[in-house]
Amino acid sequence: MVNMIRDRQTLMLFGGVLGLLLLATIIGQLIKLRRRNDVVDNLNARIRAWWVMSAVFALSLLTGGLGSVILFAVLSFFALREFITLTPTRPADHSALFWVFFIITPLQYYLVATQWYGFFSVLIPVYAFLFIPSRIAISGDPNAFLERSSKIQWGLMVCVYCVSHVPALLMLEIPGYAGKNARLLFFLVVVVQLSDVLQYVWGKLLGRHKISPVISPSKTWEGFIGGIVSATLVGTALWKVTPFTMWQTMGMAFIITIMGFLGGLTMSAIKRDRGVKDWGSSIQGHGGVLDRIDSICFAGPIFFHLTRYFFT
Amino acid sequence: MRRFVAKGVVGIARVLAGGNVRRVGFTPDERQRIYFANHASHLDFVLVWAALPPRLRVITRPVAARDYWDRAGLRRYLGVKVFNAVLVERNPTSGSQNAIDVILEGLGDRHSLIIFPEGTRGDGSTIAPFKSGLYRLGKARPDVELIPAYINNLNRVLPKGEFVPVPMLASVSFGEPMHVGEDEDKDAFLERARNAILELRQW
Fold this sequence. Notes:
The complex is a heterodimer of chains A (312) and B (203).
Chain A: H1 8-34, H2 38-62, H3 66-85, H4 94-113, H5 117-120, H6 123-139, H7 145-164, H8 181-206, H9 221-237, H10 246-274, H11 289-311
Helix pairs in contact in A: 1-2, 2-3, 3-4, 3-7, 4-6, 4-7, 6-7, 7-11, 8-9, 8-10, 8-11, 9-10, 10-11
Chain B: H1 2-17, E1 20-23, E2 33-37, H2 44-50, H3 54-57, E3 60-65, H4 66-69, H5 74-82, E4 86-88, H6 99-107, E5 112-115, H7 133-140, E6 145-152, H8 154-157, E7 171-174, H9 186-200
Parallel strand pairs in B: 1-7, 2-5, 2-6, 3-4, 3-5
Antiparallel strand pairs in B: 6-7
């Protein structure tokens, strides 16, 4: 497991996040002085939640890796709980769901913690994929069988398999980067989340032309372009903490932000189909856990595999 | 120790079912109340209990079936010691005390109660007609407020006939206090009470 690096670079990263949070808080309070409405209240609620989320994330990194594995395992569990809540299941799915929540999900993160890459990468797409429909078939209820099986499989893929690729970054052996993988995790999460925030900010400031009004009324071309460009630039500025060159970092940051956008859009489409605005209400101002990590679900595995293929 | 266990049970309920509570014209306070809810899961009373502020939990007792809860081991410990349940006979034999009297005794002059007037667990899709107990309690204790509570989705966490729960977001909605009207007859009141729960569905 990675030893957490209490050196200057790491302190600067945390300092940077702290600075951003302070800046956001001051701006939020200034806007509140001039104008009060629901949008401003929601903005400040979001900023407050960001303090908590950043603190939890920083703490998980400081534990030397295991903390991040546990943090993302917990996030997966709650995200999957939100997903299954909005997915019509039948009583015959009960046993399969029990396995999904209490056996497969912990096992996946156990494989991350023990860095068993071979099994980690096939547990859900191979074993769980075949297990779930078999278990439902044994229960003997054929109503909407394919639909029920695939929805559970899909939830497991997105909420557990995809998300587990974030702490799995700790298992990559990058030449000359030993013991520093926690920074890769930091890089990914900061770029994805910053991209979400900046798309929101640019969208609120300049947003006119909607990208897909039916699926996500708040996503605009102005927000998309502004957010992607500015988050890619901030990501590029972090290149010294990554194992990549500056141009490689820029490419990675760009791909991460695009994947994050696609994740948000795809998960919105599911929400629209189910007729809800948010997946849950557990994070004030943000909605549910899945609303916050939908972009990570898509960016995590791609970033993991690009790094693994080109740099290990 | 019991408080600690109670906290643990509430914690487990939160991890499994979330902590969503909605209050529609209901403010929790120390007044004596009878919370009546739809019933589809063994966890129902835990969720209603957990939805109350901690200071009210200690005075709130679930009404539960003796044949299920009064068995040696964990169930009796949880039911009797931790939740201080009022246990009633489902199939009264001659000589056993009348269930309503047992419940009124359990209510006393400071406790609140959680009851499930359907009498048994349903499959979660419909709410069965109410048994008369709620009406008789309301008649016997007109000073006690009757609070409708709708439990949503908990039947998917632990459906009838299953032994292990799965995580699923559930919620409890409390509605406006009710009383039995002065010259309201039994069936009219029971239907009104049942409708009060059905109305909470839309919240």
